[in-house]
């Protein structure tokens, strides 16, 4: 998936595995904070911009698949 508004959280398979281990038990904001503790930050991260980490599925992908962990740069949650 190549969407500039939703870049993947990491291309490091070990870090992605750690995020996925916690994804079901944490809220999106908690997962974002966990990602930060692993040294992962979204593009443009700063005091006034800290978008959440979300799980998404590309169009046409089965929801039974694991989906993608991406930074939702479109979010205005905060």
User: What is the N-to-C succession of helices and strands?
Assistant: HHEE
Main β-sheet, spatial strand arrangement: 1-2
Give the number of DSSP strands: 2
Q: Specify the biggest β-sheet.
A: 2 strands, antiparallel
Helix content: 25-40%
Distance between the termini: 25 Å
Task: Give the overall shape.
Answer: globular
Low-confidence stretches: none
Per DSSP, what share of the residues sits in E-state strands of 2 or more residues?
5-15%
Q: Find the structural class using helix and strand composition.
A: alpha+beta
The number of distinct helices, counting runs of at least 4 residues, comes to: 2
Radius of gyration: 12 Å
| Mean pLDDT level | 89
Describe this structure in words.
The chain is α+β, with helices and mostly antiparallel strands. It is built from two helices and two strands. The protein has a two-stranded antiparallel sheet with strand order 1-2. The longest helix is centred in the first third of the chain and has 11 residues, at 13-23. It is globular, with a radius of gyration of 12 Å. The mean pLDDT is 89.
Write the layout of secondary structure elements.
Elements: H1 13-23, H2 28-37, E1 53-56, E2 68-71
Antiparallel strand pairs: 1-2
What descriptors fit this protein?
alpha+beta; 78 residues; 10% strand; globular
Short description:
The model has no long low-confidence stretch (mean pLDDT 89).
